[in-house]
Specification:
Shape: elongated
Order of helices and strands: HHHHHEEEEEE
Helix content: 40-55%
Structural class: alpha+beta
Number of helices: 5
Length: 170
């Protein structure tokens, strides 16, 4: 019955291993138990494809592929300079592959580093500004998840998956 903690730990598990099917299934079940149903904004197709691509493997695997492709590029370059001139045709594809793996690794790392918040209070009022006297925009209930965009003192600026944003007292 502790849905905010369940959501928190399933999210952590999925960040470490995006292909963990049990954690995804249990996260879906836990999200059914919370009050607020936040529908995410649709993504542009290429951003959605990129997101799927970066989640195909854990970040450790992307790092390993980036390192292997970089070393392969380095070795091919050395071999083409000193020994085999016909290897030069493999250098450009290896450079492109290395850059692609580094870009995917960087994107995966940025996704892991996003600061998220899960509401643990039964009700949290979202304000228009980081003061008690500001206008109440809406309220959130325990288990609702959002991204932390900024913080000032004890106030946290959050953004929900549907694009709504505001300030809550942390």
């Amino acid at each position: 019955g502790d849905w905010p903690n369940a959501i928190l730990y399933y999210e952590k598990c999925i960040k470490k291993n995006p292909r963990h099917t049990n954690a995804k299934y249990n996260l879906e079940l836990a999200n059914l138990k919370i009050i607020d149903r936040i529908e995410p904004l649709p993504q542009i197709f290429y951003k959605e494809w990129w997101s799927i691509l970066t989640k195909l493997l854990p970040i450790k695997s992307w790092r390993l592929l980036a390192i292997i492709s970089s070393w392969t590029m380095f070795i091919l370059t050395i071999l083409s300079i000193f020994f085999y001139k016909n290897i030069k045709k493999y250098i450009i594809p290896t450079v492109i592959l290395s850059l692609m793996f580094f870009t995917i690794t960087h994107s995966s790392y940025r996704n892991i580093q996003k600061k998220e918040i899960i509401i643990f209070d039964s009700i949290a009022l979202v304000k228009s500004a980081p003061t008690e006297k500001s206008t109440d925009l809406f309220s959130l209930h325990s288990g609702t998840k959002g991204l932390i965009k900024d913080s000032i003192g004890e106030w946290i600026n959050i953004q929900l998956e549907n694009g709504d944003s505001g300030w809550i007292l942390g």
